[in-house]
Design goal:
- The protein is of the alpha/beta class.
- Helix content is 36%, strand content 20%.
- It has 28 helices and 33 strands.
- The strands form eight sheets. Strands 4-3-5-2-6-7-1-8 form an eight-stranded mixed β-sheet, sandwiched between helices.
- α14 (408-414) packs across α15 (420-431).
- The chain is elongated, with a radius of gyration of 40 Å.
- The termini are far apart.
- The mean pLDDT is 89.
Length: 828
């Protein structure tokens, strides 16, 4: 009875809040009646002014179930006062006051009627699930309310969300809490998790235990369809007398109803469900919940543009939702197949889908709405910039937007209830009279694979099998999946006003349509008849071993994995190379070829990174030549142009002067700066360079010298000479350092006899560090005070050198001795 629902206790407070405010938040646990009772209590409020209530549900099954329960309460058939709408299906009439809709439907309604003239209130049910469509619909609804409809009421309902933070985000709107009708649930944890056993094996064992220990029906939470089917197989092997019902989104409606309605009297029902059963649905008779502790969620990778399903641990709030299912009708039990220690470490709340989703559908809706800056909208969780950038890039590639403005093609795509990729494909198909084929392709891509895994990756084969099945032939495939595919295809055919087509499928036409939806996944075979391909986006992918598609040079890939490294192709179709011309673009490529060590230039017909055709360019524009050459030198370093120690010394001389004489305009010649300014100092000398030998023929020292003003060149020779003439008459090279430390002269001791003072540079301000060497070029002394060396240390050094080099002349008086290079006989 409706009078038993706890949410009724807060109805007066809620009505007052909604009368005084246009936004409110309701927190109510499962079983409180918020989904099926509250809309009925609000549908005749005076502030509605006779307008509708729109209530959003996150799942199709919940939409239909909630609408039917409210209609049953009013003793009416669905479609009278209470109706529902979802993609390709609706039950509404002129008398409908409450519409239950999937979240994407509200966005469509706002796009069609910006002011929502017939709507007085929007209810966001189960908002804690944080679906992308719910976040988008709320952002648009808030803007409608702010700009056009101050009288529009918005009610956000949640079982587990942090309502205080949500209220603050919305401007401190009122929060009403209902206590709910929740009977106690006894939680039983696993003492030790078996990480070696398959999940379905662990779950089947837990079901067997629960049947012995508990009474009533059992609801089991599993990550996905695979685990559900595997668990069903194990339960069937046990020959249990129970009614075993799967429950997941793709299940036919009749099978879903079987799972949520009571079993025959005296018979136990075991429901194996995905997270679809966490909220909104009431499954009669459930007293025991078995929670595997896992859920399967889509994760989008903006770098690859791929979404993959990932199995993750449930969050604490989701685990609480699941356990609560056992306490709807009376005291219950929840078996959690993890330890209390694991429970302690679970994440508190689930991540908002907007943080991990493909945002292309949302961005297209916002472009249609006219949003120029997405940050202008009020988001409960702002979308990440990386995913946004990828979405804009994809939409530009599909000709849906130009800049931040939606195009005519984009508006057509936004009008179709599907992902922008498939919308683009369907419109392309219409322009090439391929609507019936596109309907089959779109429906097949949106559903599960109807054929066994060993059937290969050819999507054309799936379409052919669909058509044979539709024509009444026996085919090897999943009948239920074919039925769902055909239902979707029929809806698309109805929308495009075309009849079904059961003729033989042209493989390349299927490939053409996939290429229209996934242009960056056009794939070129790496080697003839090989399994490896390269996608237009540069990624390497691989067909299953011995797949028949290896005979095809070009493929269009629809489904592949989103993992790291080499991708696996799941569904693809051949593409006629001539059809690719329409998707190609011409580009001029000028680059340095490391193999040939030369500049190469070509005009290429390309699809992404793939080259359909290439021919040499007759000439290279000078600016492009300079850009490519300079970028190549930056990448490889100055050694590419013959840079050696001599050039290092030239640079160190200037670097030293720059530090020694900071008030003078000495240029910055550090390597990083020289690489940055290649165009200025090197550019004029490489205007005709084509290959590495052209660089190596450069007179690099002349190039460097010319980069310094003439007056500084002259000053440099005086202030920091490359070498100095010593008393022997020879020029000895100086070694400079880029940190401005004292330059070094390495010279044999005999060549500086008669030199009284230490030589200097920098106009006498900087002394040279003398490395005095033996005749065998071994160091004997380091000094910056030559006079002191002669007076104090030379006598001892002389003794050692006379003993080691007796044929050489070692005078007692170095001040007046003749400086020599080589051996000078001692005087007799």
């Amino acid at each position: 009875m409706i009078s038993e629902y706890p949410v009724l206790a807060i109805i007066p407070d809620l009505k007052k809040s909604l009368s005084d405010h246009n936004i409110a938040v309701l927190q109510a646990p499962p079983g409180a009646g918020k989904s099926t009772v509250l809309p009925l209590e609000l549908m005749n409020e005076p502030w509605l002014n006779g307008k509708k209530i729109i209530m959003l549900e996150p799942r199709r099954l919940a939409v239909r179930s909630v609408a039917e329960r409210m209609s049953s309460t009013l003793q009416q058939s669905t479609g009278n006062q209470i109706g529902y709408r979802m993609r390709f299906e609706n039950k509404i009439s002129n008398t409908t006051q409450v519409e239950v809709v999937t979240e994407g439907i509200l966005t469509r309604m706002i796009q069609t009627d910006n002011a929502l003239e017939e709507v007085g209130m929007i209810i966001f049910d189960e908002f804690h699930e944080r679906n992308l469509n719910a976040d988008l619909a709320l952002a648009l609804s808030l803007e409608v309310q702010q700009l056009l409809r101050n009288d529009l009421r918005i009610l956000i309902m949640s079982a587990t969300l942090d309502t205080i933070s949500l209220s603050e985000r919305l401007g401190n709107v009122p929060v009403i809490a209902s206590q709910g009708r929740q009977f106690p649930v006894d939680i039983i944890y696993t003492h030790q998790e078996d990480k070696t056993a398959h999940l379905h094996t662990v779950v089947a064992k837990a079901i067997r235990v629960a049947r012995k220990e508990q009474e009533g029906d059992i609801l089991v939470f599993l990550p996905g369809v695979f685990e559900i089917n595997k668990t069903m197989e194990l339960l069937e092997q046990m020959s249990l007398p129970d009614l075993i019902c799967p429950l997941y989104g793709d299940l036919p409606f009749a099978k879903q109803q079987e799972a949520i309605t009571p079993a025959a009297k005296g018979r136990t029902k075991i429901v194996l469900a995905t997270s679809i059963a966490e909220t909104s649905l009431t499954i009669e008779g459930i007293k025991t919940v078995i929670d595997s502790g896992y859920s399967r969620v889509p994760r989008f990778d903006p770098r690859s543009g791929l979404t993959r399903l990932e199995t993750i641990r449930v969050t604490k709030d989701a685990a609480d939702q699941r356990a609560g299912r056992a306490g709807r009708l009376g005291p219950g039990v929840c078996y959690r197949l993890w330890t209390q220690a694991t429970q302690h470490n679970l994440i508190q709340h689930r991540t908002a889908e907007i943080m991990e989703a493909d945002l292309a559908p949302m961005v297209l809706e916002l472009a249609q709405w006219g949003t120029k800056d997405i940050n202008e909208l009020l988001w409960i969780t702002p979308p990440p910039s990386g995913n946004l950038s990828q979405a804009w890039e994809l939409l530009q590639q599909l000709d849906a937007v130009k800049g931040s403005t939606i195009t005519t093609r984009g508006k057509e795509m936004a009008s179709l209830p599907t992902h922008p990729r498939l919308a683009h494909m369907l419109i392309e198909a219409r322009e090439h009279t391929l609507e019936a084929l596109a309907a089959d392709v779109a429906a097949t891509l949106e559903e599960r694979d109807p054929l066994p895994k060993e059937s290969g990756a050819d999507l054309s084969l799936r379409i052919q099998m669909l058509r044979k099945w539709r024509a009444g032939d026996n085919v090897a495939g999943n009948r239920n999946v074919f039925e769902r595919i055909e239902k979707l295809s029929k809806n698309w055919r109805r929308m495009f006003n075309v009849s079904e087509d059961n003729t033989m499928v042209a493989d390349d036409k299927v490939g053409f349509l996939i290429a229209a939806a996934y242009p960056e996944r056009i794939a070129q075979q790496s080697t003839p008849h090989g399994e490896r391909y390269t996608l237009a986006n540069g990624r390497s992918v691989k067909l299953p071993t011995h797949d028949a598609l290896t005979r095809e040079k070009w493929l269009a890939v629809a489904h592949l994995d989103g993992g790291k490294g080499e991708g696996k192709i799941f569904l693809a179709a051949p593409v006629n190379e001539n059809d690719l011309r329409a998707l190609s673009h011409v580009r001029e490529v000028i680059r340095w070829d490391d193999t040939k060590n030369m500049l190469v230039a070509a005009q290429q017909v390309c699809i992404g990174n793939l080259v359909l055709q290439s021919k040499p360019l007759p000439s290279i524009p000078e600016e492009e030549r300079l850009r490519v050459l300079c970028d190549t030198i930056r990448d490889k370093g100055l050694s590419m142009i013959g840079w050696n120690d001599t050039h290092d010394q030239w640079r160190n001389r200037i670097a030293s002067l720059r530090l020694w004489r900071p008030d003078e305009p000495w240029p910055d010649v550090q390597e990083a700066e020289m690489l940055k300014t290649l165009e200025q100092w090197l550019g004029p000398f490489i205007t005709n360079a084509n290959k590495l030998a052209d660089f190596q023929r450069l007179d690099l020292m002349s190039v460097l010298t010319s980069s310094v003003p003439w007056d500084l060149q002259s000053a440099m020779e005086n202030l920091a000479p490359p070498n100095i003439k010593v008393p022997s008459g020879y020029l000895i090279q100086l070694k400079y350092h880029d940190d401005g430390s004292d330059p070094v002269m390495e010279v044999r001791l005999q060549e500086v006899f008669g030199w009284f003072e230490t030589p200097t540079v920098n106009a006498g301000r900087t002394k040279i560090r003398m490395h005095l060497l033996s005749p065998g070029y071994r160091p004997v002394q380091v000094t910056q005070d030559l006079q002191s060396f002669w007076k104090t240390t030379y006598a001892e050094v002389r003794k050692q050198l006379r003993a080691k080099y007796p044929k050489h002349f070692w005078p007692e008086d170095p001040f007046n001795a003749e400086a020599v290079r080589g051996v000078k006989r001692k005087p007799r």
